[in-house]
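Appendix B. Extra example for self-study. Work through it before the problem class; the solution is given directly after the inputs so you can check yourself.
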Amino acid sequence: MPEAVLEIEEKQSHTVAELVSVVEALIFVADEPISVKILAEVLDEDKEIVESAVEELKSEFERRKGGLQLREIAGGWQISTRTEYHEEIRRFLKTRPNAKLSLAALETLAVIAYKQPATIPEILEIRGVQSASAIKTLLDKRLIVAKGRKETVGRPMLYGTSKDFLIQFGLKDLSELPSIEDFEDLAGGI
Amino acid sequence: MEQQTEQLSFDFDKVQPHIVRDTRDTIKLELGEFAGPLDLLLYLIKQEQANIFDIPIARITVAYLQYIRLIERLDIALAADFLVMAATLIEIKSKMLLPREIFGEAEEEIEDPRHELVDRLLEHQKFQNAAQMLYARSTVEQAVFPRGQIESDENNAEVNATVFDLLSVFQKILARHKEEIKMEIKREEMSLFDMIKNLKRRVFQAKELYLSAFFEEMQNKQELVLAFIAVLEIVRTESVKLMQENVFGDIILRKV
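Solution. Structure tokens for the complete assembly:
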């Protein structure tokens, strides 16, 4: 390890320890999950070096087992509280959990998440029911966004999930969603 | 028309909608509504403890129709989607009643009329499970808090202005001010009465006055207009004449 540190020191302006600290500071102040790319730009360091600093920071958080965690979410890194302390935090913040999405909205969101970009007729085909109000709810909550129009009869609007969707559902990216085929086993069980 | 009774919140385990049969063999809907006809159908199949790959169409259709008779009265738009499914069920039921040998060759695999419906049900169930997964994820996420918002220039409306914004606002105020002041001075500084007095004094002192010179002294349009009116007035009321030395020459105001 010492040799590697030396090498980095020669090339870059930050030592590894410094880099881990400054990365932590930047992630802390960022309003949204902050990507390694942006971190690297701000610090004027190589992406790979920043990446390893983030990983080091993550393991530091895990080793400490404190009230905070470092998570990769929506293509960036975020410091947040651990789930265990939500009751105390809510008591302090005096907040209640947000209104949950309705079954119809959740189903519509699931179809869009897996079939995106998807049109309203395609959603109707799977759900067997008109989804206009569910789509409006999802658009209002910024969980989905319009992604242009499909070049077919009627040029229907295409919908896909948004960055807020990844944040609200705690996903690194869309590939982190379990495969839709994985739900088939459950389906057979009736 | 859309589903107006969309619930804001529910619990997957506690608030799954279900049908309760009361004593008079009518059905009653409890806790919300089914998200769609496929939902209802899956529920009924489960209720009848039937195999999804071998749906007892007759029994399920009866139960299904009983249910939609109920929702028809509640919401026409929603009922329409359920009616489409009812028609499909009845179509499948009638197809199954027909002797199968009539269609095609006996050796050929005859497609079960229920096949397409089963596919849709399975597909739907996959997404229902996916919805459940999303529900679970969002529940977990609600227990995680990022840090509170730090006040930065971007989210502080008071500071969220550049020097240029400030400058343009300042210029606007300045311009408004300028206009106001100009108006006031014009009105206050010179009245027609003053102008006439001034002109009279000049003419009586100097005996004669070149009009072009007098007009040139004027600071702005309003004064010019006043000066012109004053000239007309003084010629009318006083012993003053307008003279011209040659054609197109300067006009001279002369005391008689």
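Self-check: Chain B has a mean pLDDT of 74. If your reasoning did not lead you there, revisit section 3.
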